[in-house]
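Continuing the series of single-chain predictions for the mutant panel. This is the parent chain; the variants come on the following pages.
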Amino acid sequence: MKKDKKIEAIYLRGLGQSIKEIARTLKVSKSSVSLWVREVNLTKKQKDILLHRGQSGIVSEKRRTTRLFNELNKRNLIINNSKKDIDVIPDYGLKIIGAMLYWAEGRKRGARMVGFSNSDPDMVKIMMRFFREICQVPETKFRAHIHIHSHLCVNDSLKYWSSITKIPTKQFYKTYCVPSISSKGKADSLPNGTLDISVCDVGQFLKIMGWIKGVTEKLIN
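Parent structure:
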């Protein structure tokens, strides 16, 4: 099998194909192709063609990199300009924002306690401000629960979410670990898992539901 591919590689090299092209065609490594065809002598014309292809590839890659860089700059310019539209947010604004985030990501139907889950650290920080400053939740009532894939480091995740929320690790429930075949060997999109914040207070839960209903009625009616 390998001998056949070596013969084919030598033949393709004689036609003036590059090592990369041959490796792609034969589905073998470039190092193998390089070893097989090292005795093949290319004509000056073939060398010039390969050199031109290589230079064209470099030019194309530079153009692509420049285009991506320019697009990124344009995106950042729009984002940075639109950031200026947001002024200081008063407590009332935080109340509305927190209520809407809870409406989107919080525990609602049939719940008898406050519960909010998310993996975005910035969103979690905003909700902790909402709970502390608007809801006036006592520090001792916060509980946290991490959901994470079993191949990730639980202790690192615990330290991470404790630093984000300022909730002591002793107020965290036992971390829930779940195996993930799909994420094995791949870059982890959620290296610290997902955090669930709980406050056992039915009165506070009903109050947040009231704020959500109030905002909804004001906007719709």
